[in-house]
Amino acid sequence: MKAGARILIVEDEALIAMLLEEMLTDLGYELAGTAATLAQALELAEATELEGAILDLSLGGEKSLPVADVLAARGIPYMFASGYGRSGLEEPYASRALLRKPFDFDELEAALKAL
Questions:
Q1: Three-class DSSP labels, 70-96
Q2: What is the pLDDT of residues 89-109, one digit of tens each?
């Protein structure tokens, strides 16, 4: 994904969300929105103009998989972010891009370029 693309952040930890917002801006991406709950994320995923998304796999006890389904139906690339690795990703999500927490600037940049 090229710089300038509009990215949706789905993250329930406020500090991580703020860090992602800052890193995306520093990398030249635009913020399409930030959601902390599954309901907020679904609303943004369905109605917002965006070119990509970073989805925290676990949102306060709920998984972000329904958001991934909406994005896939719209043809919008996305990656999961998780501190648990691939253990929480079952099919058909297991092959999707995963950004392992904690991540640094270079890891985020590489993951976005590969998206």
A1: HHHHHCCCEEEEECCHHHHCCCCCCCC
A2: 888 999 999 999 999 999 999
The pLDDT value recorded for residue 86 is: 80
Q: Residue 76 and residue 18: Cα distance in Å, rounded?
A: 22
Fold of 6-114: Rossmann fold (3.40.50)
Strands (E), the chain: 6-10, 30-35, 52-56, 58-59, 62-63, 78-82, 97-100
Contact present, 54 and 79 (Cβ < 8 Å): yes
